[in-house]
Amino acid sequence: MANETKAERIERIKREKDGLDVIADIYRYAKTGEAIDPEDIDRFKWYGIYTQNRSLQEEGDDTQYYMLRVKLDGGYLTSKQVEVLGEISVQFGRESGDITTRQDIQFHWLKIEDFPEILERLSTVGLSVLGASGDCPRNIVSCPVNGFDHGQIDDVRDVVVALNNLYRGNPDFSNLPRKFKIGVSGCNKHCIQHEVQDLAFTAVKNGDELRFSVSVGGGQASNRRIADHIGYVKRRDIVKIAEAVARIYRDFGRRDNRNKARLGHLVDEWGVERFVRELEQESRVELERYDNAPFTPYPRRTHFGVGATIRKGYNTIGCAMTSGRISGEKLLKLGRILELYKADGITLTSTQNFVILNVHTDATEPMIDTLQAVGFHPYPSVFEARTLACTGLNFCKFAVSETKDLAIEVVEYLNRRFPDFDEPVSISINGCPNSCAHPHIVDLGFVGAIVKRGDERLKGFDLIVGGHLEGKESRFAVKTGVKVASDEVAALIESLIEDFEGSNSINFGNFLLEKYAYESVMASTA
Predict the structure, then answer these.
(1) Backbone phi, then psi, for 150, in 5-degree steps?
(2) What is the pLDDT of residues 116-138, one digit of tens each?
């Protein structure tokens, strides 16, 4: 079917065989070794499986390796589950391991013949890959300390479970126009980035009454838009609203153009008023309207260090993992540490970090010492805390530039250069324009691009600056026109921090906006 557009091809593939139905083929291909139908490879995504870029393969190695994303409900893992993930990484994935921005974990270097054993090992500890990707509801993000945090507005773990039960393996929602990203939070720091979710429910207090702010249509790639706040609902109505939004999106979202197929595109096409009218009719829930509640600024949406829990005498410990990279050996060590200090487990965060849950007060400082000794960061520097990186060129077929190792190198350099710098700064190193590492909502976003230096074409980045999330005060990063090669990134950030320290500004993000706006004006008048 040579005349098919990309959208037509994907829609035909989904009509001919639902993505949920490819699991039997995965086992068949693993057992028989037969050539894999390229259309089934597209369907593999519904089980979190992607083909891997061949950048790091040795010459003569023709093996097709795969990435596997494990979908973690609420981002939660027990010590045993952490150890099993570590074993999978060591035995099948060459020690690879990446925490994602949707509280999942993914591995590389996997072979098709190993998937039956890998999936069985995951199943024995209650883990799954179903719905980890594909045109269906993705992992529902939530606050990593929900249900534990002493300062939480509401414990929404049961709501997350109810939504997962609604969507998981449900053929009614396995063929959406594109991916569908949901967040639910009872956090008093509003840490799930509700402004850029397709659909989000954020707990707020209206006087003494608990309500959930509903926002729709957020996104960061082809659908780059701040979500519209459309009203408030009672807790009991969240599932009704979520189901109705998914049905509306399924039935009316565009399927003729993959670049205009996200929920936000439908909201733009209809307008907010019509969307709300259709939603209220479909859900039979009337949204409450009143002034928007204030939301925590993005730099303060963190859970690092020791936090008090609702269980007296116990704490949480939030740890940073620069770029989300965590090796199989570190996973194994983390599992053993959790068992040694009798913690309840961990929750991964939407900023590629993790929080340890319910650590006894007497064990907290000894556990922190142990974590630091093996390379985790309970008290991260400002650079360790908020530096994100996508999969990058080593493994991703869309990437232009490598990211993970570069992010680690940049953070180490900045830590040495500015050991006492304490102004919140967020950095994203993104290998292509697809925004997987959220470059448009941070202070310094590096977006993969080819950079010319004389006659050379080098792997590098376009610089965008000034992204920020804070409810209706949110903004996306703006283009600067600056291009840097990969080995120039650290030096550029260094120079910007030096300029900031020599200025009168008290906010790094605002400083960057002012700096590049001024330079743009000067260039245009030169």
Answers:
(1) -65, -30
(2) 999 999 999 999 999 999 999 99
Sheet with 199-206, strands from edge to edge, namely: 182-185, 199-206, 209-216, 228-233
Terminus-to-terminus CA distance in the chain, angstroms?
53
Q: What's the token pair of residue 321?
A: 């993992």
> CB neighbours (10 Å) of residue 150?
15
Q: Which two tokens stand for residue 360?
A: 């006894």
What are the residues whose beta carbons fall under 8 Å from the beta carbon of 300, sequence distance 6 or more?
189, 424
For residue range 132-169, what is the model confidence (pLDDT) as tens digits?
999 999 999 999 999 999 999 999 999 999 999 999 99
Answer for the pair 468, 428: CB distance below 8 angstroms, yes or no: no
For 384, phi then psi, to 5°, come to -65, -35
Exposure of 286 by Cβ count < 10 A (0-12 exposed, 13-18 middle, 19+ buried)?
A: exposed
Residues 6+ apart with CB under 8 A from 471: 195, 229, 292, 293, 294, 295
pTM over 0.90: yes
Q: 244 CB contacts (<8 Å, ≥6 apart)?
A: 279, 282, 283, 285
- Tally DSSP H helices, then E strands, for the chain: 15, 18
The tokens describing 197, both together, are: 């979710």
